[in-house]
């Protein structure tokens, strides 16, 4: 069954199309005008749009242009009278999937619908659910057209070998999307290895990514293959890739160019077949402009970019996600919580959610743990949201904040003298300057009289 948006200002033809599609097991969504069709698209993303060419107000070609700008992978079929076939042919050149001259036979309509739906499925524009081939994205719950478009693009790029950068705010689900992309790819039988680049100590980045041999440095008591080798044949997910120090960026670029890694202390490099998917909550383009991320590495990683929306931009997903989290957490904590009382969901939907999906899960968990009734009451949700602001910050954020405070203290103690500060930190000047650059600290600002 497919969801199909049909658009026509003739009520009789609209009703006929709707009946025909329903008889074939599809779910038709009716729109009496182009303007109404765009409103329907904001509510639910279909797998196909069928529109009349000549309509009052927005015509079929104008509707196609608007749909194509917002959902470039969504196929559009145009119905046209014989006199306007030249217009339909021109539309094909602009990207319309196909046209059907009126009057048409039912089998002709269904033949074109079948052809368009096959293309829609191949491009990843299928609806969420339990249909075969949908398991690659089963961990991502959404009814948001904007999120569906991101998933359609991920499905399309999954079959290629292109490097992908996923960008979006913290807690928006970048690793979930990376895992879905891997699951939809030909590499799915091989491992996906994930690493948070911001959580690796700077002096261990090279060893962690590329491996080391026994005795290569103090503490190297055995050979370690490194994450590139562990991910051989599969996908390496570099989360928070913008946190990599510049020296490590140079070595990563070389690996991506030569497709081989040399472990620390090893005599020979090893060939690796790995697809790299990266993610960052900071825009890499801005990091390149600020000199904190190498431009050549950016272009090597950013062959395709996917942008995840914040939870506040997909509020229609909040009830769906909240109920899902509630069900799984109630099972984990052996609670008899079954749903949300009147007003509770409204509070969740209207909240700001700076921490995105991760924060929503945290709030629902508090409600389940503290709840004493089958339905979570609105005051408990309000209390959980109010307490959220005083929660502990994530370890990675705390580590970065500590590092910045430590550097500021060193620069204050040495009045901005980088050589002295580097000696106190037991780092060479190059590494110390890289640390300062990462936190955008200017030594001159700490000199007397500044």
Care to describe what's here?
It holds the Pfam family Sigma54_activat. This is Sigma 54-interacting transcriptional regulator. Residues 3-117 form the Response regulatory domain. It comes from Ramlibacter pallidus. The protein has 450 residues and is of the alpha/beta class. Helices cover 46% and strands 13% of the residues. The strands form 4 sheets. A 5-stranded parallel beta sheet has the order 2-1-3-4-5, sandwiched between helices. Strands 7-8-11-6-12 form a 5-stranded parallel beta sheet. The protein has a two-stranded antiparallel sheet with strand order 9-10. It has helices spanning 11-23, 34-43, 60-70, 85-94, 106-122, 145-158, 174-183, 205-210, 227-230, 246-258, 284-289, 295-301, 318-332, 344-350, 356-370, 378-388, 395-413, 418-425, 429-438; strands at residues 3-7, 27-31, 48-52, 76-81, 98-102, 164-167, 192-196, 235-239, 260-261, 270-271, 275-280, 304-307, 339-340, 375-376. It starts with a strand and ends in a 12-residue tail after the last helix. The chain has 4 domains: 3-122, Rossmann fold, CATH 3.40.50.2300; 137-307, P-loop containing nucleotide triphosphate hydrolases (Rossmann fold); 311-388, Helicase, Ruva Protein, domain 3 (Orthogonal Bundle); 395-446.
Quick recap:
This protein is an alpha/beta fold and 450 residues long.
SSE topology:
Blueprint: E1 3-7, H1 11-23, E2 27-31, H2 34-43, E3 48-52, H3 60-70, E4 76-81, H4 85-94, E5 98-102, H5 106-122, H6 145-158, E6 164-167, H7 174-183, E7 192-196, H8 205-210, H9 227-230, E8 235-239, H10 246-258, E9 260-261, E10 270-271, E11 275-280, H11 284-289, H12 295-301, E12 304-307, H13 318-332, E13 339-340, H14 344-350, H15 356-370, E14 375-376, H16 378-388, H17 395-413, H18 418-425, H19 429-438
Parallel strand pairs: 1-2, 1-3, 3-4, 4-5, 6-11, 6-12, 7-8, 8-11, 13-14
Antiparallel strand pairs: 9-10
Helix pairs in contact: 2-3, 6-7, 13-15, 14-16, 15-16, 17-18, 18-19
């Amino acid at each position: 069954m497919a969801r199909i948006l049909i658009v026509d200002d003739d009520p009789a033809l609209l009703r006929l199309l709707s009946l025909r599609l329903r008889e074939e097991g599809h779910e038709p969504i009716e729109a009496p005008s182009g303007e109404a069709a765009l409103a329907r698209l904001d509510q639910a993303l279909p797998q196909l749009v069928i529109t009349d060419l000549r309509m009052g107000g927005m015509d079929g070609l104008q509707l196609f242009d608007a749909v194509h700008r917002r959902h470039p992978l969504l196929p559009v079929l145009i119905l046209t009278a014989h006199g306007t076939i030249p217009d339909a042919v021109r539309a094909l050149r602009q990207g319309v999937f196909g046209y059907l001259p009126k009057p048409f036979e039912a089998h002709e309509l269904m033949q074109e619908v079948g052809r368009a739906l096959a293309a829609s499925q191949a491009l990843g524009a299928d609806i969420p659910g339990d249909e075969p081939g949908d398991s690659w994205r089963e961990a991502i719950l959404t009814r948001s057209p904007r999120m569906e478009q991101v998933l359609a693009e991920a499905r399309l790029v999954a079959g290629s070998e292109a490097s992908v950068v996923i960008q979006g705010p913290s807690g928006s689900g970048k690793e979930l999307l990376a895992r879905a992309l891997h699951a939809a790819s030909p590499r799915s039988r091989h491992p996906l290895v994930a690493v948070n680049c911001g959580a690796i100590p700077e002096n261990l980045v090279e060893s962690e990514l590329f491996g080391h041999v026994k005795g290569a440095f103090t503490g190297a008591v055995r050979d370690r293959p490194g994450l590139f080798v562990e991910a051989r044949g599969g996908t390496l997910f570099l989360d928070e890739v913008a946190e990599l120090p510049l020296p490590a960026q140079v070595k990563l670029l070389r690996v991506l160019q030569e497709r081989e890694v040399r472990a620390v202390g090893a005599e020979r490099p090893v060939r690796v077949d790995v697809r790299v998917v990266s993610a960052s909550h900071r825009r890499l383009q801005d990091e390149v402009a600020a000199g904190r991320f190498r431009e050549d590495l950016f272009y090597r990683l950013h062959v395709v970019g996917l942008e995840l929306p914040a939870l506040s931009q997909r509020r229609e997903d909040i009830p769906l996600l909240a109920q899902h989290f509630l069900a799984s957490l109630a099972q984990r904590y052996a609670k008899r919580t079954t749903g949300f009382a009147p007003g509770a969901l409204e509070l969740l939907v209207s909240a700001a959610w700076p921490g995105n999906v991760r924060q929503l899960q945290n709030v629902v968990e508090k409600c389940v743990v503290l709840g004493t009734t089958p339905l979570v009451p609105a005051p408990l949700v309000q209390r959980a949201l109010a307490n959220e602001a005083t929660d502990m910050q994530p370890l990675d954020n705390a580590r970065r904040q500590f590092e910045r405070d430590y550097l500021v203290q060193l620069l204050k103690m040495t009045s901005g003298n980088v050589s002295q500060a580097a000696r106190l930190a037991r780092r060479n000047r190059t590494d110390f300057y890289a640390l300062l650059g990462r936190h955008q600290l200017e030594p001159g600002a700490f000199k007397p009289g500044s």
